[in-house]
Amino acid sequence: MTIAVFIGSLLGVMALGVPIAFALLASGVALMWHLDIFDSQILAQNVIGGADSFPLLAVPFFMLAGEIMNVGGLSRRIVDLALALVGHVKGGLGYVTIMAGCLLSALSGSAVADAAALTALLLPMMVSAGHKKETAGGLIAATGVIGPVIPPSIGLVIFGVAANVSISKLFMAAIVPGLMIGGALWLTWAWLVRREKVVPPPRKSAQEIATAFRKALWALMLPVIILVGLRMGVFTPTEAAVVAAVYALFVSTLVYRELKLNQLYAVFVSAAKTSAIVMFLIAAAMVSAWLITVADLPAKVVDLLQPFMGNKILLMAAIMVLVMVVGTAMDMTPTILILTPVLMPLVRAAGIDPVYFGVLFIINNSIGLVTPPVGTVLNVVAGVGKMRMDDVTRGVVPFMVAEFLIMFLMVAFPALVIVPARWFGG
């Protein structure tokens, strides 16, 4: 009955069109009434305490870094470098999208920011070259999924805080899985364009490649600084976010000189608005998280999944299917905040590595950004690329299937995540 009250109230309020943050608060109030412990002071304390977290400071700073990179020319130079390297091969612009997506993921950690930048820069080029607009849009949307996986990742930060798992270990463990998703997109694109008669641009000379690399070098140094700093213990993930924002600001204003001082206000306001939405969502979700613990919902979920408890792989597969279903109707951040306190006790009870689970959980939630009908990244690509939502959805299907296959491959073979994580010290 407790589960029915929580889920029923949450979905019922969402069905009325209430924003998800307020829906979470409403479901929390409903659960408090059901448990006969309603107290407005508890509600207020959990909302304030939910946002009062030092690790969560990484979220606004990574978002600020992403905004600065897009306005300051870092993103464009990454795309230019990818064009110089692989733009000349058959279907080269698709490979450029994937390569640039992986590189941008190591800069911003936001699927929406990466998808918007790639759509604005590459979609017109791909259409002009003769590629189908829906396939090109689908590839860009699917590439945006890599953003929350390859560190630095806002999704991993939120999960780490909610699950009390080391964010540094999550970052290191997610590197190889993120690249594997990029590899899956690469193979899928190669299969789709094998019969296309698109004439690629001529191969760039060694001098042109060197010039593109030199121009992008400052942008490429950012992920190196962050990952090496985290690996060597120079700074925490929160401090890494500050380093990313300050470095991006320095490069954009003093090196590339594309970000003017009169543009700074707009950039800061844009980042602040996005951060405020995410942080209020996190704060509201903490009310539900506290009540989930009080109502002992994890124990009830353990009872429901008891048949799978003896087999870690089957249990992980069942959890991933559950998250897939939820991801079709809910955005990434609320899914993380709602399901993490429910699933983590189950994961720990089954003896599953929390870091391994966290990486797969975030991958699944990231793919949820391109699963209709809610897919946030699909809406971004459709809006920026001036496309119909239906066209982007059709185009993303083969890439989305490839991403899910890679995810379940990692479910079946946990060593694909765990072993590389040990290489990177995760």
How would you sum up this structure, described in words?
The chain is an all-alpha fold and 426 residues long. The mean pLDDT is 83. It comes from Achromobacter seleniivolatilans.
Produce the secondary structure layout.
Blueprint: H1 2-15, H2 20-35, H3 40-51, H4 58-72, H5 74-86, H6 92-105, H7 111-129, H8 133-144, H9 154-163, H10 167-192, H11 206-231, H12 237-255, H13 264-294, H14 297-304, H15 312-327, H16 332-350, H17 354-367, H18 376-384, H19 389-412, H20 415-423
Helix pairs in contact: 1-2, 2-13, 3-13, 4-12, 4-13, 5-6, 5-11, 6-7, 6-8, 6-10, 7-8, 7-18, 8-18, 8-19, 9-16, 9-17, 10-17, 10-19, 10-20, 11-12, 13-16, 14-16, 15-16, 15-17, 16-17, 17-19, 18-19
Q: State the distance separating the first and last CA atoms.
A: 40 Å
Q: Structural class given helices, strands, pairing?
A: mainly alpha
Order of helices and strands: HHHHHHHHHHHHHHHHHHHH
Low-confidence stretches: none
Identify the overall geometry.
Answer: globular
Approximate helicity band: over 70%
- Biggest beta sheet attributes: none
Tell me the strand percentage band: under 5%
**Average of per-residue pLDDT values:** 83
